[in-house]
Write a structure and sequence with these properties.
The complex is a heterodimer.
Chain A lengths: L7 E4 L4 E6 L9 E7 L2 E5 L2 H7 L7 H11 L5 H17 L3 E4 L1
Antiparallel strand pairs in A: 1-5, 2-3, 3-4
Helix pairs in contact in A: 2-3
Chain B lengths: L1 E3 L5 E5 L26 H13 L4 E5 L9 H10 L3 E6 L6 H9 L4 E6 L4 H8 L4 H11 L5 E8 L7 H9 L5 E6 L4 H5 L1 H4 L3 H17 L5 E5 L19 E4 L5 E2 L20 H7 L1 H5 L16 H4 L4 H8 L15 H10 L32
Parallel strand pairs in B: 2-3, 2-9, 3-4, 4-5, 5-6, 6-7, 7-8
Antiparallel strand pairs in B: 9-10
Helix pairs in contact in B: 1-2
């Protein structure tokens, strides 16, 4: 079920965004954003990072969509919306989000 | 949009082998390490820093019972300060609410609370201790703290028919995750195998039930299920592959590729007090031994699944085939699979080969089995 556009997603207890050293294998020295949660770790970049940074219990799903449509203004707005809803559903399935109304 | 991260991902820190419980399937080795040889909190702090630098993301603080360490709050803080995600894998004893508050304040991210059953009698029988009611108290306290909670049920013949009650317990708590992990047969569990292996009919029923419940609870509670691999068609990718994702440190500091690696003859383990953690991970003979595919025999060597299950479990290959390099005998393609079928048949658990229809149920033991309980180290 797609998340309610009026709800405010927030990272669930025990799920947090961290900056970790980039994987050794890519040989670079930069930091990497990672979403840490029970038994899982998701590497975030670009849009996925923009989304998770807004899962703070303040932004509504609708606001997250309009923010990202602005940031990725060259992309087709409907495609951006679908991608965001899909990603939030994935995080919900992982039990990484609470949706506050 | 995202990638799952592999490579040294988690550090399993066996802080002690001491434990107030005596579970008949304990994953600790038969030879337990003594309290006097345990690493100090300073040494552990150094290990956590080295692990984070080597790219490890998560620390699993376990034991024995990690709460048996009087310095557990300091250890949680040290792991968190090092930049790790901190999991505490615990029986919930000994704990009071002040100690729980201190652990959360120190940076605990996730607590995995183990239960031995949904009912007090079987739970206490399996743990060899009066432990169940204390766990229920801890579960109640946890509702007031912002920490991820997993309920961890180890499943076997004596409690596999209680899954519904176990789920109900999880739904009445603040848990966002529940793990139904069937016993894996090494060490203590191997010794108690005949009384722990569920029947095929029990297993089929539980899988069907959990598939339904997984669907129902989606988005609320993540339900995870580990089958007993004696019944599986293919082996489990043990530890995510030897030396691929996980490193275990024993109470006195030996670095192991898996919980049971000490049973494999001819392997020697390096100690984190003598050598850097990353060096051990990359170079030590024990971690190299079954890394990659070079060690594989047929049928693994040319099997399409070798990148998925990595030949299964090396310790199980040793226990059942007498050769740690053999294909895990639980695999339906393994030359020694008939041996596993013979074990199941001898326990009156199945009368037909894997993949065929359900077998008649085994008679339930009416009396309490004569368990071999794990003792406490000196």
């Amino acid at each position: 079920m797609p998340p309610d556009l009026q709800s405010r997603p927030r990272l669930a207890a025990g799920c947090r965004l961290a900056e970790t050293p980039a994987s050794r294998t890519n040989g670079k020295d930069d930091r990497q954003h990672t979403l840490l949660m029970p038994e899982r770790a998701l590497r975030l970049n670009g849009p996925s990072l923009q989304i998770v940074q807004r899962c703070d219990g303040k932004h509504t799903v609708r606001q997250i969509i309009s923010d990202l449509q602005m940031i990725y203004s060259k992309a087709e707005p409907h495609k951006v919306e679908q991608d965001i809803l899909g990603y939030l559903a994935l995080l919900q399935k992982e039990r990484a989000l609470d949706f506050e109304l | 949009m995202e990638n799952s991260i592999s490579n040294p991902l988690a550090l399993i820190a066996e802080l002690t082998h001491r434990c107030p419980l005596h579970c008949v399937y304990c994953s600790n080795p038969l030879e337990l390490q003594a309290r006097t040889s345990e690493l100090s909190s300073e040494v552990w702090s150094g290990i956590f820093r080295e692990a984070a630098e080597a790219g490890v993301l998560q620390a699993d603080l376990t034991g024995g019972e990690p709460l048996a360490r009087t310095d557990i709050v300091d250890l949680v803080r040290a792991a968190r300060d090092a930049g790790l995600y901190v999991n505490l894998i615990t029986s919930g004893l000994p704990m009071d609410e002040a100690r729980l508050a201190a652990l959360v304040e120190a940076g605990l991210d996730h607590i995995q609370l183990s239960f031995q059953g949904a009912r007090e009698n079987i739970a206490n029988e399996i743990s060899g201790a009066l432990s169940h009611s204390q766990k229920l108290r801890v579960l109640e306290w946890l509702k007031s703290y912002r920490v991820a909670v997993t309920l961890n049920f180890v499943i076997h013949r004596r409690n596999i028919d209680q899954l519904q009650e176990m789920l109900a317990l999880a739904e009445s708590s603040s848990a966002t995750r529940i793990e139904f992990a069937n016993v894996q047969y090494y060490g203590w569990a191997f010794a108690n195998r005949e009384n722990l292996l569920p029947t095929r009919q029990q297993l089929d029923r539980s899988v069907e039930f959990l598939n339904r419940e997984q669907e129902r609870l989606q988005g609320r509670i993540r339900v995870e299920f580990v089958v007993p691999d004696y019944y599986a068609k293919y082996p489990k990718p043990c530890m995510g592959g030897w030396g691929r994702k996980l490193m275990l440190i024993t109470p006195h500091g030996d670095a192991l590729p898996c919980h049971a690696a000490q049973v494999i003859p001819g392997l020697s383990f390096e100690n984190v007090k003598n050598r850097g953690l990353r060096e051990i991970w990359e170079q030590s003979a024990a971690f190299q031994k079954f890394r990659g595919e070079g060690w594989m025999q047929e049928p693994c060597k040319t099997c399409d699944r070798r990148g998925l299950d990595f030949g299964g479990c090396r310790c199980q290959a040793l226990l059942l085939a007498g050769d740690a390099s053999a294909t895990d005998p639980v695999c339906s393609l393994a030359p020694l699979r008939p041996k596993v079928d013979a074990i199941l048949a001898s326990l009156n658990l199945i009368s037909d080969p894997v993949g065929a229809g359900p077998a008649p149920p085994a008679p339930e033991p009416v009396t309490r089995p004569s368990w071999l309980y794990r003792p406490n180290p000196s």
